[in-house]
Structure formats: structure tokens, C-alpha cells
């Protein structure tokens, strides 16, 4: 999976980028057909200028579709963990949906068994 990490209006240190890279590379374990993913790290411009929430967004590209997750947290690490948990769930659901769509129907299986019994 090709992973691209982008920071919006700030410069991230290599430690944060390595953390994000290591976390999101785990998505391949749940669905091997993920082609790429874009991760966006942003600072939330809230009412209080002293405390800024961190926003992490990920867009995961799978054949014919994409999965998008956006979460906030007090740190990028916290927001990344939240996004990863939700993305894992969505990727698993997508995988099951594709598997169910491509699975043979029960009626087709019965007719195939009847055809083989006749031979």
C-alpha cells in the first residue's frame, strides 16, 4: 500500500510522521487489496488560541471505492489511534460486503449440486 502523509499549515517532525506511517501500514493486514491511502494532519482553529485540537483524516483507496475517516484529539497520536480503529472497522465491513457480493447465491449452489447428482 502506498501511504502519503500531508501536514496542513504546520511542519511535523519525523517522529510524528514515522508514528503515523507505522500505524497506518497495519491496514494491509485487514484487506490486501488496498491500493493507497492519504493521511492529512491538521490543527483545529478553535475559539481558544492556546489549546488547539489535532485533526487526523485518512482516505483509503480500494478498487472502485474509497473509505474516509476524520477524528479529532488533544494529540496527533490520540487522533491517529481513533482514526485507525474506525478505519479498521470500515475496511473489514467493506471486505465482507465485497465477499458477500461475489459469493455464489444459495440457489446457484443447489442447482449445481443437482446437476452433479444427475451425472
Automatic annotation (TrEMBL):
Pfam family, one: Ribosomal_S30AE
SUPFAM superfamilies: Ribosome binding protein Y (YfiA homologue)
InterPro entries xref list: RHF-like (IPR036567), RHF/RaiA (IPR003489)
Superkingdom of the source species: Bacteria
Species assigned in the record: Siphonobacter curvatus
The encoding gene: raiA
Descriptive protein name: Ribosome-associated translation inhibitor RaiA
Amino acid at each position: 500500500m502506498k501511504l502519503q502523509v500531508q501536514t496542513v499549515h504546520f511542519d511535523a517532525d519525523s517522529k510524528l510522521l514515522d508514528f503515523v506511517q507505522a500505524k497506518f501500514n497495519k491496514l494491509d493486514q485487514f484487506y490486501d487489496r488496498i491500493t493507497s491511502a492519504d493521511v492529512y494532519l491538521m490543527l483545529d482553529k478553535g475559539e481558544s488560541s492556546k489549546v488547539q485540537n489535532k485533526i487526523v483524516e485518512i482516505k483509503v483507496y480500494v478498487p472502485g471505492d474509497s473509505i474516509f475517516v476524520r477524528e479529532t484529539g488533544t494529540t496527533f497520536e490520540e487522533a491517529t489511534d481513533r482514526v485507525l480503529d474506525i478505519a479498521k472497522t470500515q475496511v473489514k465491513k467493506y471486505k465482507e460486503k465485497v465477499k458477500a457480493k461475489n459469493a455464489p447465491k444459495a440457489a446457484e449452489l443447489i442447482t449445481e449440486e443437482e446437476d452433479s447428482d444427475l451425472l
